[in-house]
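Q&A log
Question type: sequence-to-structure
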Amino acid sequence: MPALAAFFHFLGAFVLFAALAVELALARGPIDGALVRRLAIVDGVFGLAALVVLVAGLLRVFYFEKGAAYYFHDVPFLVKLALFAIVGLLSIYPTRQFLGWRRAQRRGEAVTPDPARIATIRRVLHVEATLLVLVVLCASLMAHGVGFISR
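Response status: OK
Response body:
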């Protein structure tokens, strides 16, 4: 079971990165109706992948690996958790925009987001990507025992 939890944890992380890269690529230029649908779908995949990463990670921490007492004395783990939470909070902005555009589209309205809003979304997505890279750095530090606080 620990191997399966690790598998889902890593699979979720890879899908998370892939979905974020696709969002960045799709949000490049003018956004039309077809793109709004794609962005909403990809953002849903991003959210689902984040949930898989979180659930599998928590299962690993509390049930399958070294235990919560160990991990909560590990600085890189705490930083990793905080960064992941920040990414989650940041992702609210693009998600709200994509869903709002999708709702407007379903009401039959033409959706043509202004370039300034698209630029803001892209900046947020870039910050998310940067923070996720730092999450991976923290995971590597954890794996090599860097930053452990002894009791």
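Response note: The chain has a mean pLDDT of 92.
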